[in-house]
Amino acid sequence: MTIQRLVHMANQVASFFASYPEAEAIDGTANHLKSFWDPRMRREIEAHLKDKAGAGLSHIALEAVKRIAAKDAAKKSA
Questions:
Q1: What is the pLDDT of residues 58-76, one digit of tens each?
Q2: Cα gap 42→47, rounded to integer Å
Q3: What separation in angstroms does the CA of 60 have from each of 51, 63, 73, 77?
Q4: What is the tens place of the pLDDT at every residue in 14-24?
Q5: Could you report how far apart the first and last alpha carbons of the chain are, in Å?
Q6: How far is Cα of residue 5 from the mean position of the Cα atoms in its chain?
Q7: CA dist., res. 61 & res. 65, Å (int)
Q8: Contact by Cβ (8 Å): 9, 42
């Protein structure tokens, strides 16, 4: 799957939650990506965040991916 497709999919999820208050929208998006995306997909979008600063991600999707990446990094260092 291309990174462009993953960015598009993350933005679609974020757009569903866009009508929620911002914190809830970010939580909902992060929970969806964590629950329903294959770990390989999450690794690719996290790498995109690291390499390209999450270019193309909406604000909500970007913050959700940052949250997932931070939790994954904490698990690796624990």
A1: 999 999 999 999 998 898 8
A2: 8
A3: 19, 5, 20, 26
A4: 999 999 999 99
A5: 30
A6: 13
A7: 6
A8: no
